[in-house]
Write a structure and sequence with these properties.
Length: 418
């Protein structure tokens, strides 16, 4: 009898030990659910992840580790990411059990995630790879995580502009999924960012609604700001940035000396931003470019960035120095790498160039990208006018830019010439 008891104790210890290791190695996010109202893990306290992590834990969408941590800086695999997205959809156990088995042939060892993966495949949230695998152990990228969330919201690929991953990245950025996240589309997502991304749209996913698309600062006409002047379309152009503070990006056409409200002589910029030509005064402390330098930038297809405070220009930078003077975000990109690119084809918002720039020749422009068409006199660019993507044709030349850092790989400003 004593031998039987001893054997049972040993067996229990072995099984308990194995279960703990198995949970830590394979379940990760789904290891230890924390109930609603529980305090956030210590390692997200007082961070920008705290609210998102606490909210999602309370809803049972994500969990922490057995040691009471969340480990926001570590990566997450594709199986875990899929489980999170499906839990946000709120299916019942019957829904999960009734989902047809997926055809993925590499789910061995992922029994804890299999029903979620099957459900995701059936609902079109995931598609897997061409070789019939899902690669559950692979680190999920920001593009992949965004794609799962966008599909869970009910968007279909044919509703989106461009090609993958630009189309999903662009839509995710437009509805705020990347807000507050420093990311690159094809890098591995960290757990803290996944929590932020999911929390942004979790209620919409559960309720089957698509979030409204706000006009985000920096899209189309202005740069980064605490206010969105894009909502003031009915105001006179002279008032368009009258009280704007932040960064504005566009084309500097000319400068002149004028008097400000105090009677001080200051420089005034004639600035094309979106479809508006504005006259913006400096604070008198900005050493502006000469006419010859401005003309050279016009010919080269280079854009300006203005730092503004209550409608007054306090600093400026140009694209050929990467806006370093403005401390531009890491996501700033000159896709055409300092030169005009020859256009091969334009279809919808996808621009294909004849040569590769930075290893690519296909670029997707935002729906509300600012487009500027060159004015040419005697073969020389003398200025620009507002245009649209439909104005760009094969055999034209373009300069392609991202300015805000919100949409890595996505074009936000296009300059074009015949």
């Amino acid at each position: 009898m004593r031998k039987k008891i001893t054997f049972l104790l040993i067996a229990t210890m072995i099984l308990t030990s194995f279960s703990a290791v198995f949970a830590a190695d394979t379940a990760d996010i789904d290891a230890t659910p924390i109930s609603a109202g529980a305090a956030a893990p210590a390692d997200v306290k007082d961070t920008n992840y705290e609210d998102a992590v606490s909210t999602l834990m309370g809803k049972g969408i994500i969990s922490g580790y057995m040691d009471g941590t969340f480990r926001p800086g570590t990566t997450i695999n594709r199986a875990e990411a899929c489980v999170i997205v499906i839990k946000a959809m709120g299916p019942s156990e019957n829904n999960l059990s009734d989902a047809p088995k997926s055809s993925f042939k590499d789910l061995t060892g992922y029994d804890w995630a299999a029903k979620y993966i099957d459900f995701a495949a059936a609902k079109g949230v995931i598609t897997g790879y061409a070789d019939g695998t899902f690669r559950p152990a692979g680190k999920v990228t920001y593009a992949e995580m965004a794609s799962m969330l966008i599909r869970a919201l009910g968007y279909k690929t044919d509703e989106l502009t461009g090609v993958w991953p630009d189309n999903f990245i662009s839509k995710a950025a437009a509805i705020g999924i990347f807000k507050g996240i420093d990311y690159s589309a094809n890098t591995a997502a960290i757990r803290g960012s996944v929590a932020l991304m999911t929390n942004t749209v979790a209620d919409n996913i559960l309720n089957g609604t698509k979030p409204e698309e706000p006009t985000e600062p920096g899209k189309g006409e202005t740069g980064e700001s605490g206010k969105d002047p894009g909502k003031e379309q009915d105001k006179d152009q002279s008032d368009y940035l009258a009280d704007f503070s932040g960064r504005a990006y566009g084309i500097l056409l000319e400068t002149a000396k004028v008097l400000n409200a105090k009677g001080d002589a200051v420089d005034e910029y004639e600035f094309l931003i979106g479809n508006k030509t504005l006259y913006l005064k400096t604070n008198g402390k900005v050493a502006t470019d000469t006419t010859a330098v401005i003309d050279a930038h016009l010919i080269a297809g280079e854009i300006y960035g203005l730092q503004m405070n209550s409608g007054v220009v306090t600093k400026f930078g140009i694209s050929d120095d990467g806006f370093l003077a403005l401390n531009s975000p890491a996501g700033y990109s000159d896709f055409s790498i300092g030169a005009w690119a020859d256009v091969k084809e334009v279809k919808n918002h996808v621009i294909e160039t004849k040569a590769a720039y930075g290893g690519r020749n296909i670029f997707t422009a935002l729906d509300n990208a600012s487009v500027y068409i060159a004015k040419v006199e005697s073969g020389v660019i003398t200025g620009y006018k507002a245009g649209s993507i439909s104005d760009i044709k094969a055999d034209m030349k373009v300069r392609l830019y991202a300015i805000t850092g919100d949409n890595p790989g996505i074009v936000e400003i296009v300059l074009a010439q015949e």
